[in-house]
Every structure is written in C-alpha cells, then in structure tokens.
C-alpha cells in the first residue's frame, strides 16, 4: 500500500534541516522501514489507546515501494493455506501478548486499530480475527473503536468484505492510486482499472459508510488531464475520505533506479505544485475538508487513528518494521522477517530493552509538536505550546512567521479562530501584552502554505534550536 501511516518526526527532518526542494513538499507519513535506536521524548506518557498493526503481504512490490513487505506472487489472492501468512500472524500475536503494559493504567481500551501494510486485505478474515481477539484480550477494545484496514482492488470480493465488517472493520482505505490503466501498469500495481471499479462497487454495496480513496500525484508520464480525471472519478465515487500523496522517489526502489526527482518523465516542481493545488480546489469544491496536508474528508469523517499521530499521542505498533510511541519512547521493529522473529523471542524472554538512557530533550519535543501541528488545518495551539515551552519561544515563532503572513503562506488566528488581518500583523510588536494573547493559533495556508510545509517547518526548527 501507499504511505498512509506515520513516520517518527526525527527520521524525516533533522534538528537543523536544509530547506528541501519543492518537489518534496509533502512530508511522507509512514512507519519507519529500518530499525532505529530508541529515542526518549517527553510527550504525553499516557497509556496508548491506539494500535497500528503491520500486515506486510503483497502480491508484488510496486515500483515506488520501499516498505517492509513479503511478496506472495502476482496471482496470490487466496492465502488461507499459505504458511508465510499463518506463521507471521502467529508471531504477531506473540508480540502483542509479550508487550508490557502499565499495570496502573489498565482501564483504557483501544479506541482505534489500523491494519496497514503491505496489503492487509490479502490476509484471511479468520487470521484478522485472531489478531483482533489478541488485542482485545491484551488491551481491551472499545465497542465504538475505529478499526481501519488498507485494502487493494483485486484482493477481496463481496464475501470477504462482509466477513471483515462482521469482525468489526468499519473503515476502509482503498488503494486506487490512479484511474488510468497506463499509470497503474507503469507503477507496477497488481490491479488494473477493472478491479478498481469492482472494488469501489463492493465497498459501496456492502454498506461501508466510512471509506477512503488513496491517490498518487506526480507519477511518471502523468499529465494534468490524467490527474484531473483521477480526482473527478474519485469524487464521483463519493468516498467519505480522500488521501492525496505526492510520489516520493526512494533509494533502492525500481523508480529510484529509473528516475531522478524533477526530471522527465516525472513532472517538474511547478507541475507537482499545480497537481496539489488542483486537488485542493476540486476536493474543496466537492465539500471535502482539507484537514491535514494529505487528507480530505466529508464533515465528521476525519481518520481518528491518524489524529493520534497529529496530536502526538502515544500508540502501540506491532509487526514488521512498525514504530511504536509508548511512555515517551519511539521504538522501531526490524524490517526483515527473521530478525523480527528474533525480536519477538527476545521480547518474550525479557531481553528487549525498550528504555533509554538519553535525557528528555525539550527542543526535540517542541520540534515534534510544531511539525505535527502544522501538518493540520487546526495548526499550532500557542497557548498550550507556551505552557509547555515558554512564552518567549512563542514570541520568537510569531516574529519568524510574520513575513509569511504577509506572503499568505502562514495564517494567524485568534481564540475564535478568526483570521487576523495582514495590517494588524504588520503593525503588531508581538509583545506579551499585545499579540501573544491575541494570536492563538498558527496554521499554514491551503494550498500555498502546505506546499512549502518543509521550508516553513524548517524555519521553526531553526528558531527552536537557536
């Protein structure tokens, strides 16, 4: 599947990043694909109420994919008797059972579960059921929990969809990626356009109320007309959510060997920016709220699980290459199956050290909060930020972003979330008795501010680190 989950912040931008090129304006949001050392973070140390579960199986590896996956073969759709799948599920359940929990906070059942991959819809419902039952027995599972699953066209039928729904899956993320046969083939996708329309029909006929379509922009040979058609057909399908991702050329992938970012046949930076603006305009006109850089939804259909990430709340993660955030610590699992099995055994034996000798760094935490908050339409809550990191840092951020309010890349909002006019910002001295109390939120404008999100977040990092 596409990058639809979250990368720990410190793996995306260093504390003193160089301003990235515009073509990388969308900060990717996927779990880390490599084992990283544990780093301590002073974010909330509450008991997690969300869990990410990595199901790594795909029919084949797409040309842009650098995720930890297990390719089963292009024709693989029936995996009930595949030992690679059943064995992995057993190890996954063992990891869940071996996970330590805070005995003083055992009354917090899971509110969200996200099955990502890979292609989770390749896993038989009976095995998904065993994972959910293991989670329920270990942590508890709310009756109103959002249970999301990434599903690829061509990997499920009406019966399988119904079985998943009976297990509690109530949110589907459908990996369409494009509505052109040519582009699907050029990406190495295992499905074609016929399977896309069949999958949409299945999801709708089964009565899935909460479902998303994933699309990729800036693909090789993709034209503005193609992108407009994909957006139009996605809107006509009437999902409650649409995720729009900018293609990332990763080292080690087939695309990474074939193409250089910004060079033909990839769209140039200007074209990529126009694709992003087109998505913002067309989806906005169709009454989708642009609530996060890559995410649009009908009112009330924001992905609850992803909000766990954007609000920097703790979460469990299980499975190959996944990264958890528990007790203020981010911890990544191995991305190779054999190494992952050894990790689970060590976890069961009590020999996995999930603690850190590193001190909690306030600067790192402040960077986390800024980066996550500025990804969202809500933006950075200055009152909370000031309470955690000091009013002087708030004033420094306001001063640094002041020119970008005039250029309309950044928006200052008051307590009622009413935009503060450019003239008021230009004339303000931003002292504690004036604008600190008046400016309650900083957010990036849509779409121009989101387009420059890397640069604008890097600016904040520089202020925090100074």
What's the architecture of the largest domain, going by CATH?
Answer: Alpha-Beta Horseshoe
Relative strand content: 15-25%
CATH topological fold name of the largest domain: pyruvate-formate lyase- activating enzyme
Q: For the terminal residues, how far apart are their CA atoms?
A: 39 Å
Please compute the radius of gyration using only Cα atoms: 22 Å
The largest β sheet comes out as: 9 strands, mixed
- The coarse overall form would be globular
Name some characteristics of this structure.
pyruvate-formate lyase- activating enzyme; 466 residues; 2 domains; three-stranded antiparallel β-sheet; alpha/beta
How would you describe what is shown here?
- It is a single chain.
- Strand 10 and strand 11 (295-297) form a beta hairpin.
- The two termini are 39 Å apart.
- Mean pLDDT is 86; it is low at 1-43 and 355-359.
- The chain is α/β, with parallel strands linked by helices.
- Helices cover 39% and strands 17% of the residues.
- The radius of gyration is 22 Å and the shape is globular.
- The longest helix has 17 residues, at 269-285.
- The chain has helices spanning 83-98, 125-139, 158-167, 181-186, 193-205, 224-237, 254-258, 269-285, 304-310, 337-349, 362-374, 382-389, 391-406, 422-427, 435-438, 448-451, 453-465, and strands spanning 39-40, 50-55, 57-58, 70-71, 110-117, 141-151, 171-177, 210-217, 241-246, 289-292, 295-297, 316-318, 323-326, 329-332, 380-381, 410-413, 441-444.
- The protein has two domains: 9-310, Alpha-Beta Horseshoe (pyruvate-formate lyase- activating enzyme); 362-465, no CATH class.
- It has 17 helices and 17 strands.
- The strands form four sheets. The chain has a nine-stranded mixed sheet, sandwiched between helices.
- Residues 43-286 form the Radical SAM core domain.
- GO terms for molecular function: 4 iron, 4 sulfur cluster binding; coproporphyrinogen oxidase activity.
- Belongs to the anaerobic coproporphyrinogen-III oxidase family. HemW subfamily.
- Pfam families: Radical_SAM.
- This is Radical S-adenosyl methionine domain-containing protein 1, mitochondrial.
């Amino acid at each position: 599947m596409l990058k639809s989950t979250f990368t720990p912040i410190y793996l995306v931008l260093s504390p003193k990043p160089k301003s990235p090129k515009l073509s990388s304006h969308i900060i990717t949001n996927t779990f880390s694909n490599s084992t990283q050392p544990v780093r301590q973070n002073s974010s909330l140390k509450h008991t997690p109420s969300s869990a990410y579960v990595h199901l790594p199986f795909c029919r084949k590896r797409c040309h842009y994919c650098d995720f930890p996956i297990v390719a089963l073969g292009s024709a693989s759709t029936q995996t009930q008797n595949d030992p690679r799948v059943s064995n992995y599920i057993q190890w996954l359940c063992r990891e869940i059972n071996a996970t330590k929990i805070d005995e003083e906070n055992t009354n917090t059942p899971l509110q969200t579960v996200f099955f990502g991959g890979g292609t989770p819809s390749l896993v038989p419902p009976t095995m998904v059921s065993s994972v959910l039952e293991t989670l329920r027995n270990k942590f508890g599972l709310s009756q109103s929990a959002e249970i999301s699953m990434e599903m690829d066209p061509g990997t499920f039928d009406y019966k399988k969809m119904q079985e998943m729904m009976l297990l509690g899956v109530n949110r589907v993320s459908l990996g369409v990626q494009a509505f052109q046969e040519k582009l699907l083939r050029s990406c190495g996708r295992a499905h074609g356009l016929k399977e896309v329309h069949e999958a949409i029909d299945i999801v709708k006929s089964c009565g899935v109320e909460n479902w998303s379509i994933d699309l990729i922009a800036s693909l090789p040979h993709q034209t503005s007309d193609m992108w407009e058609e994909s957006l139009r057909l996605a809107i006509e399908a009437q999902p409650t959510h649409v995720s729009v991702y900018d293609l990332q050329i990763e080292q080690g992938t087939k695309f990474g060997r074939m193409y250089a970012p910004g060079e033909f046949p990839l769209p140039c930076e200007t074209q990529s920016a126009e694709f992003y603006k087109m998505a913002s305009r067309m989806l906005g006109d169709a009454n989708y709220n642009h609530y996060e850089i890559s995410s649009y939804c009908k009112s009330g259909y924001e992905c609850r699980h992803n909000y766990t990430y954007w609000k920097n709340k703790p979460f469990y993660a299980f499975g190959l290459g996944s990264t958890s955030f528990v007790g203020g610590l981010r911890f990544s699992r191995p991305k190779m199956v054999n190494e992952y099995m050894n990790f689970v055994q060590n976890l069961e034996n009590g020999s996995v050290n999930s603690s850190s000798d590193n001190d909690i760094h306030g600067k790192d935490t402040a960077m986390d909060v800024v980066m996550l908050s500025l990804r969202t339409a809500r933006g950075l809550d200055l009152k909370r930020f000031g309470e955690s990191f000091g009013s002087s840092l708030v004033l420094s951020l306001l001063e640094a972003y002041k020119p970008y309010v005039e250029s309309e890349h950044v928006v200052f909002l008051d307590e009622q979330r009413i935009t503060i006019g450019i003239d008021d910002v230009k004339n303000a001295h931003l002292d504690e008795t004036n604008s600190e109390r008046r400016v309650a939120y900083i957010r990036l404008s849509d779409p121009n501010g989101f387009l420059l999100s890397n640069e604008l977040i890097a600016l904040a990092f520089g202020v925090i680190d100074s």
